Amino acid sequence: MTEHAHDPTSEDTYDVLVLGAGPSGENAAGRAADNGLTVAIVEPELIGGECSYWGCIPSKTLIRPGDVLAAARRVPGAAEAVTRSVDVAAAFAQRDYMVSSYDDSGQVPWLDGKGIELVRGRGRLAGQRVVEVDLKDGGVRRLAARRAVVVATGTVPFFPPIDGLADVAAWDNRSVTGAKELPPRLLVLGGGAIGCEMAQGFRRLGCDEMTIVEGGPRLLGREEPFAGEEVQAAFEAEGIRVVTGVAATQVRREAADGPVTATLADGSSFKADEILVAVGRRPHTADIGLETVGLEPGRYVDVDDELRSTGVEGGWLYAVGDVNGRALLTHMGKYQARIAGDVIAGKPARDMASRDVVPRVTFTDPQVCAVGLTEAQARERFTNVRAVSYGTGDVAGAYVLGNDIKGTSMLVVDNDRRIVVGATFTGPDVAELLHSATVAVAGAVTLDTLWHAVPSFPTVSEVWLRLLEAYGL
């Protein structure tokens, strides 16, 4: 699809304009088109966005070989067949295949099939319902929206103001998921999902030394405390050095291609060949023209439950996905996008999940899977809360999977309503347990009703029965 320079004084008009063709933008555009509206979507990079090329897809692809080998080693009979380490070149080649070698031409037919016009270039708001696009060929195209503009520009990595960090060519999520070679030593700043996944993933790919530094008191600080503790124990058993409760204060690289040294606040220091910064994300809104509609550049775009911007009059500006700061997860952005597409078309729809029913998976081993509120959050919200736990590895289905299966399953219950308001599962390959908990939380299903949802035997889902028994049913 070729773009040509347009007269900047003329306007091409559509019902809906979407800024950003990542998963959230694609879904907003697709839903609006399905509702019979004309749509143009503006993207300066690759259709499919961060998740498809530099986030979820490549990272989980790189994690998978190590997970498979670890799972096999837990099974007598299969363990004896594991006689080699991961083939790194093959793992990187599979990553390249999964991201289509960073070529998005395969995505274009989907847009064409829905009648969505793709405008390749960098778009920015230029006043009410107007977007100007700096095209790839150097021209400028001015677009206007009859009904709505949807901002779906996502987030970019946040680099903290650590002395020297800006000068050492540090890795971010794009660098690590797109790596061509395995650094012998990798230092990871940040113990959230990205930092933990990549630390273990690259250790299992073959990094000789791996260190993860988290300034907070534990890994995965937003989840239940036991989750971070179990992940740390697993990391240390695999030879990953974990440092918590102290932040980096200085970073230096000895030469352009030399090792990196990070000094921490307690005076300790660690040396590595590369350093990955995974301490968080910030909204990608610094240069998209928010100031032309009265919003502050560089900030999240605050929205109501219909995904409309609360700071712009007229109800024509929407923001979906990470850019609104509600729930920074691909699946939540896609959910919000579907809602926005319906609202724009005049259908009744509201975001009912982004506050209290957010499912999330950290793809470490053990996996950490959670939905809804943590116990601490629930106790701030409700007066009568009870949490019940059971060992994920203490059901027959776990023994079938192999030896030494560990983990914790936990339900957080609002006793007054007898419903589950939060759940966490840790253990190998427990992500598929999560949707049952998500249905229970989203549907406010009572424990008395859940008692009749009989788990199959022998599956790990039998842990649901044990949790309800622990509650007293």
Description of the structure:
The chain has 473 residues and is α/β, with parallel strands linked by helices. It folds into three domains: 12-48 and 104-156 and 282-344, FAD/NAD(P)-binding domain; 165-279, FAD/NAD(P)-binding domain (3-Layer(bba) Sandwich); 366-471, Enolase-like, domain 1 (2-Layer Sandwich). Helices cover 28% and strands 25% of the residues. It contains 14 helices and 20 strands. The protein has helices at residues 23-34, 49-54, 56-73, 88-98, 108-113, 173-177, 193-205, 225-237, 330-344, 375-381, 396-401, 434-442, 447-450, 463-471; strands at 12-19, 39-43, 117-125, 130-135, 140-151, 155-157, 185-189, 209-214, 240-244, 248-253, 260-264, 269-272, 274-277, 281-283, 317-319, 360-362, 367-372, 385-391, 408-414, 419-427. The strands form five sheets. A five-stranded mixed barrel has the order 1-2-3-4-5. Strands 16-17-20-19-18 form a five-stranded antiparallel sheet, with helices on both faces. Helix 3 (56-73) crosses helix 4 (88-98) and helix 3 (56-73) packs across helix 7 (193-205). The protein starts with 11 loop residues before the first strand and ends with a helix.
List keywords for this structure.
25% strand; 3 domains; 5-stranded mixed barrel; alpha/beta; FAD/NAD(P)-binding domain; Enolase-like, domain 1; single chain; 473 residues; 5-stranded antiparallel sheet
